[in-house]
Design a protein that fits this description.
single chain; 346 residues; alpha/beta; Udp-n-acetylmuramoylalanyl-d-glutamate--2,6- Diaminopimelate Ligase, Chain: A, domain 1; UDP-N-acetylmuramoyl-L-alanine:D-glutamate ligase; 2 domains; five-stranded mixed beta sheet; 13 strands; 25% helix; globular
């Protein structure tokens, strides 16, 4: 994939602010839009960007990767300078260039005299997500990706979904808190939902290894930071919302707004599944058109059958055997190892 192709993705999404590939001998190519004499270099997103306008041999390089960490840049990568809570990625552009970066994407303009492609964008995180999806050829469109969000229950739901897909004969990958499951391989999870290029790379690996589905835990951090933008979800699940992560989100309305983003990302025809026993879930369901609701206490599209109250205080597993598909830190509840109730009376 070339820089022009990735640039086209950014232009089509409307996140391009200005383009720059200045040379020291071309003052019209400075980072100041007011000094740009070439109308084709304006910020009009409707224009067709022609790499030849830069007049430089490196104006349309082949791109080998999409990177956000300067330490992992490989030769030919496009480096996206993210603004973090404690650091600004623009400060690491030099390190990225030393490692072979071929193009830069940033919310800030380049210094005068910069001679490689540099796109100034309004939202670097959105740019990163969209370029990553395009670079890996949109793997989520080749499988059924189910996003699961909520304070509690994401991991349990992800493995339940995975087992359902597998029972139906559809190989299912998992991205979540405990591990990433790609084919028959389990990898240690670095984050519940990794950064956008890592999400897309993992989804591509799943597709290439024959997976037709993925159960993905989608954290509120990932949603707020646009890590799953550009992902095509077939369905999404809301489990619940309780006080957590307020050091990041600030307050419950902001936390809920981050969770809600998953459902705003759903394409037409995708199905939301909402727990309406949770008051935030009920509010979310009320704002959606097509959806499936579930619950125990509230009347929903899906309710469990009659439940007999018991004096049982706990479940005692009848077996400690664990299916190979579930990591050692989780307990299986499939048919072969289902818990039995001991010492309980109706």
């Amino acid at each position: 994939m070339t820089w022009a192709e990735l640039h086209g993705v950014l232009r089509a999404s409307g996140v391009i602010s200005t383009d720059a590939a200045p040379s020291s001998s071309d003052p019209a190519r400075t980072s100041d839009p007011a000094r740009t004499s070439d109308p084709a270099r304006t910020s009009d997103p409707a224009r067709t960007w022609d790499p030849a306008l830069a007049g430089l041999p490196n104006s349309n390089p082949a791109i080998t990767d999409v990177a956000y960490d300067s330490r992992t840049v490989q030769r030919g990568a496009v480096f996206v300078a993210l603004k973090g809570l404690h650091a600004d990625g623009t400060a690491f552009v030099r390190q990225a260039l030393d490692r072979g970066a071929a193009a830069i994407v940033s919310e800030d303009p380049p210094s005068p005299g910069f001679t490689l492609p540099w796109a100034v964008v309004t939202d670097a995180r959105l740019a990163l997500a969209l370029m990553a999806a395009a670079f890996f050829h949109h793997p989520s469109t080749e499988m059924q990706v189910v996003g699961i969000t909520g304070t509690n229950g994401k991991t349990t739901t992800a493995y339940l979904l995975s087992s359902i897909f597998e029972a139906a004969g559809i190989r299912c990958g998992v991205l979540g808190t405990v591990a990433y499951k790609i084919g028959d391989e389990l990898r240690e999870a670095t984050r519940t939902t990794p950064e956008a290029p890592d999400v897309q790379r993992l989804l591509r690996e799943m597709v290439d290894r024959g997976s037709g589905a993925c159960a993905m835990e989608v954290s509120s951090h990932a949603l707020a930071l646009r890590r799953v933008d550009g992902t095509s979800f077939a369905a999404a699940v809301f489990t619940n919302l309780t006080r957590d992560h307020l050091d990041f989100h600030g307050d419950m309305p902001s936390y809920f707004a981050a969770k809600r983003r998953l459902f705003e990302l759903l394409p037409v025809g995708a199905t939301p599944a909402i727990n309406i026993d949770d008051p935030y879930g009920a509010e979310l369901a009320g704002s959606l058109g097509r959806k499936i609701t579930y619950g125990i206490d509230q009347a929903a599209d899906i309710n469990p059958g009659p439940q007999r109250p018991t004096s049982c205080s706990r479940f005692i597993p009848s077996s400690t055997k664990r299916p190979a598909s579930i990591p050692a830190t989780k307990t299986s509840t499939d048919a072969a190892t289902a818990p039995t109730i001991r010492g309980c009376t109706p």
